[in-house]
Each structure stands twice: as structure tokens, then as C-alpha cells.
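#random but structural
TW: two for the price of one
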Amino acid sequence: MHAPGYKADSLASWIDYPEEFAREDPGEFFHIKTLLMNLDHYVNDFRAALFLFHGQFSSGSPSPHQQELFLRWKHIAARDAVITVYNFMQTYVAIKQNIHDQLPIISKTIPSAGHKEINGLIQANFPSFDKLRHGVAHPAEMLATRRGFQKNATKTPYEGLGLKISPGNYVGGHLSDNTFMCMHKGHERRIDITEEKMQKLELIRGKIFALFHKRVGN
């Protein structure tokens, strides 16, 4: 498979941190820098999943078995994208919490409006990312008992994304064009595996990094 245009990036190393950031607690400063670098890794992981999802695996006419294999590869890419988004968001939460708990002087310099804007972008572009991740990561546990199956099955008729499901059924993973969907606690959770989502994740990363970049006049 060829991946023209794929290029990983690393932006955390370009952040010009305020001097007081390192002075307040050098150990925690190193910890936060590591978490910020991890955001780069997750963005690149999502980018790689996007390329795999949209990859062209055969130049000819694939056999039915090959078509089945290629579809499963797309599911692998979609599931990895879901878990990557979750890890990205959880890392942001950890950064915010550790700054608040361990670096109060720095915490006071970060405007609350910045976090509010980031949280708004997350909610608008990756709604229920945590529930989607749970549905992807824990299907065996969710369905291990009859009670669990009933809890995660649809409660009402569902029609969408090429599916028509009666109540009491469960969908562990479904693709429709560029949209991946699974059920969690009886509700549909979905994400688009698209370049637009990639750009939104990059935008959120940029907003997070901007919170820590040395501000003019500091």
C-alpha cells in the first residue's frame, strides 16, 4: 500500500515555555512536557489510521476473500482511531489536572477561556468519544452476561447508516462510507474517519499548545 502525502509532525518541541514554568517544579515541568509530546504522537497515530482506512490495497479486482480482508483492515483502522482520540482527550485532561494541582502559579496564568474554547471544540467535534471508546474496547465484557447484552442492545428501533435494527439487537462495529458506528449502553456512538476530523484534532492540539507557549509581554 502506498501512502502519498503522509507525514508525521512534532510541534511540542517548538513551544516556547515561560521561564517560571520550569522554575516552579522542574520534575512536574518535565512530566507536562512529556504529556504534551504525547499529544503529537496521538495526532500522528490518527493520521496513520486515516491513511490505512482510506488505503488502496489492490490495483486490480480483489477476490471476495480479499474484499473481506480489506474491510477488516478498515475496521482495524477505525477502532484504532477511536482509541487514539480517547487517549488524546484523556491526556489533555491529565495535563489540565496536573497543572492545576501541581503548578498553581502556572495555572493562574492560563485563562479559563482557553480551556472553555478547547472543551467546546471537543464536544462539537468528538461527542461521546469516551462512550465510543468503551464500546470499541470492551465488547467482550459488555456482552459476557445476558444482563450485559440487554443493557447494551438497542432499546428502540434503529434505522441509519444503512442499517435497520429492531429493539434488542446489538451492533459491535459497523462502517458506512467514512463513518464508524458501534453500540454502547443501547445508544449509537459514531465517528467519521475523515481528513476533516484529522484537521479538527490538529486544531484542538494547537489550542492546547497555545495555552503554554510564552505569551508576548511575559
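TW: number two ↓
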Amino acid sequence: MIMASSFGEWPARDETHERVGKWILENASMKTGSRHFLRPKSHSEKDLAMHRLRTVEFAEAMFNLQLVPGIFELYQKIFSQPDSMEAHYLELEALKILLEAHLQFRINKPKDFQPNHDCEIIISPDLMAPCEVKCRLETSEFSSHAVSNPLKKAKNQLPKDGCGVVILKVPEAWNIGQVQDCVRNELRKTTRISEVIVYTRRFQAVTEIVSMYHPICIEILNRNSPFAPRIEPGILSSSLKANGMRSANWFTFSLQTEEKIRKLLASA
């Protein structure tokens, strides 16, 4: 139903099922055809496992974020622009990172702000951090420009006098140390970005059936920013320190599936 409402006005029930089914078949099925983020590259065990995991986590994110004000505009972008699904899906992952760190935020509508940024994070009653999310696709090759270019674009989308935060997702294959060096080099040139959160994930096949991603978040503070003392050592770390462990208010489909598999295997 979440997926159906993302197509716009609510159609008749039969038409809803038909449109949702068509979208899933075209963009999230294992049939041959054009390559999409949710579709496996091949029928190797690893690619099939990644396909299952991405599909489950995609549905999981949509379910858990459905009550966030403004989220359906992002859902509509995902369904109307399937070729850009990986970049749009990162926005869902970024919101999950903020939620798990107990951070409150609001999603910005494109017409509301100039320059435009994705959301605003509430750091404290008197400090709001404009946040922009950038994504380097998993197929991207590493270079210094591959890191600096999205940061330059993000900088231009953030207000000059704000506590700007950028969440930068990079491919699993990239060397995180090299990425951090490039980010620090770019931060030396600006005060508009107060912090960059570098985000990536490491895939692990636990069993032939169960697989998982290990999220990695690295906070890089810009010491040139006048807001640095107020968010040190980083917005995620500060919030987790103040509020305790990561939020458990996230219904995890994969854990439910794993538990069912264990019960089935135990009863076999």
C-alpha cells in the first residue's frame, strides 16, 4: 500500500495491484533486462544474495519511514525515476542513520529553500544543521575528483552561514582511508560544511540463505567551521553519547526472515 500511494492519486484497487506488480516486475525482479540497483548483475550466489538483501532493506526502509513528513515525495521520485534508484535510495539510508542516532530532522521540499538541501537536522533547540546527501554509485571508480566534486556541489546547496552537514555514501570497494584524506583536503577550503559523514557498507554472506550489510559511518569534523566546537566530536557521536545506544525503533524485516528460516530448519 505504501508503494501504491507513491504513484500519486490513489487509483482503483485492481489498477493499484496492476501498477505495483508491473513496477516490481520491471525494477525489482530477477528477470533479464536492463540493469537496476535492485536487480542482480548475474545469477552468482553473491549477486543473488545481494539482490535479496537490497530488496528486503528497500521495503524495510519504506515501511519504517512512512510516517516521516514529506517522505512520499521521495518515494515518488524513487518510483518515477528507477534509473536513479540507487541515489534516491541513499536518501532513505541517510534518514535511517539519523533516526538510529536519535536525531530529529525535517525533509525539505525543493521549493522551500534557496539554496536547496535535502533536510535539516535539529542539533539543539538553538541549532539547526542543513544537510545534503550525496552518493557515488557502486560502479564508480575512485579518484580525488570523485570525492571532491560531490562535496563542492553540496557546498553550493548549503547556506553560507549555517552548520552544514554532508552525508557522502561511497562504494564498498573504495579505500576509506583515501576517501578521508580527500574529504579533509576539501574541508580546508570552506567553512560552509561543518561536518562530512562518510558512509559505506560491507557485504557479508552469513549462510547460503542469510546475508547482511555492515554499515560504516565515519564523522569528519571541519575545524575551520565556527560551529565545530558545538558539534564536536560529531553530530552522530554526540547524540548517541547523550541518548545511549542506537535506537531500536526500526522494524527489521531481515531479522524476522532469519528467525523464520531458523525455525523451519529446526523443524525439518
